[in-house]
Amino acid sequence: MSTIAVLGAGKIGESLLSGLINAGYSPEDLLFTERYQQRADELSERYGVRGADLPDAVRRADVLVVSVKPQDIEALLDETAEIVTPDKLVVTLCAGLPTSMFERRFAAGTPVVRVMPNTPMLVGEAMSAVSGGSHATESHLELVERMLGSVGRVVRVPENQQDAVTALSGSGPAYFFYLVEAMIDAGILLGLPRAVAAELVVQSAVGSAAMLREGEGHPVIMREGVTSPAGTTISGVRELEKHGVRAALIDAVEAAHSRSVELGAKHRQDPGESD
Prior knowledge:
Elements: E1 4-7, H1 11-22, E2 30-33, H2 37-47, E3 50-51, H3 54-60, E4 63-66, H4 73-80, E5 89-92, H5 99-105, E6 112-116, E7 126-132, H6 138-149, E8 152-156, H7 162-170, H8 172-189, H9 194-213, H10 219-226, H11 232-242, H12 245-265
Parallel strand pairs: 1-2, 1-4, 2-3, 4-5, 5-6, 7-8
Antiparallel strand pairs: 6-7
Helix pairs in contact: 7-12, 8-9
């Protein structure tokens, strides 16, 4: 069993720790770093996992899961660049940061795997996409897929698709929350209490997602199954089309993709380097 260190135990880092423990990993094989001592003590008490300072965690672990905000990455790299060795696997959860950036800063030959998770990791329902860097082997990718499988579903994509993944599933929960918020407001407008409107909308979303996951048909076919001739649903769908909701969602994903590309560009070696 490899020793795994989560470098940055924020919400996503904590969710991964929790998922790994629930999947059968021993707390003895896990470490985490956390800048605030009170939170570190709380995490240790909650999960039985040892907290450590950054250099100590890097030296003791076989797998280093980098789970800090992109704006904090330079400080982490400055502190660890000299002690990360090629026998360790670096797994980055940092949005927009290419594997090549880590490969340049760490010792030659260090394997790096890039992951784009999303916030449903907090409830064990993440959608994560993994991509291997220049030195990552099949066994490295399989190890990361097993790790991330403990907190949701995992797909493997070429790294040059990670900006699209970020725009679609990385940012995707926010789009769903936005739609749910609007539907709840509509229910209130129609006279329903907020709690009732929220229950109706959220459970409808959960049930619809379950139907999609079970593979009962293409979304168009499933929508048509709710849409009776001259009924209420088709009247609502007509308004959605009239107001360009479909086009707005596509534009939103494209805008998020452009921003992801922009954020990652400054971390590439040169303008021509792709993810």
